[in-house]
Amino acid sequence: MKQDTLDNGIAGKASSSQETVSWEKTESTLFLKGTLDRDSLLPLWQQKDRVMEGIDNIDVSQLHHVDSTGLALFVRLKGECQQQGRTLVLSGVGERLGTLVALYGLQSLLNDNQPKT
For a disulfide at 81, which of 11, 55, 70, 86, Cβ 3.0-4.6 Å? Predict the structure, then answer.
């Protein structure tokens, strides 16, 4: 599958010598897959305004590694959404990312991750 455009959204891929992060946008959800760290983050960061347009949920369930740089990205994206009066939810947060969030005292990052009714 080509990783640049899709009929129902956008997809992209960041390359590094080690691991990559890929993303796919479907409706209002951004699906991240792979490794989100300082080596793979730059292409996603450079396209964040276009990628985040219309997004209110980031599904991180397919990320197998996130470092503190990736966590900082989530904090920044969430803050930007709040400034625009929007809510951004992180879904699919696994034990590893949850532990990293707790270690940095950022539980508020996950506070509004309750399903919308």
Answer: 86
The DSSP letter of residue 3 is: S
Distance CA 30, CA 46 (A): 16
Q: How far apart are CA 53 and CA 114, in angstroms?
A: 22
User: From first to last of its 117 residues, what are the pLDDT tens digits of the chain?
Assistant: 333 333 334 556 554 445 799 999 999 999 999 999 999 999 999 999 999 999 999 999 999 999 999 999 999 999 999 999 999 999 999 999 999 999 999 988 887 654 444
Query: Whole-prediction pTM value?
Result: 0.80
Instruction: List strands edge to edge, sheet with 5-6.
Output: 5-6, 9-14, 21-26, 29-36, 57-66, 89-91
Q: Please check whether residue 12 lies inside any domain of the structure.
A: no
> What is the rounded (10 degree) CA torsion for 80, 102, 61, 24?
20
**Residue 60 in domain:** yes
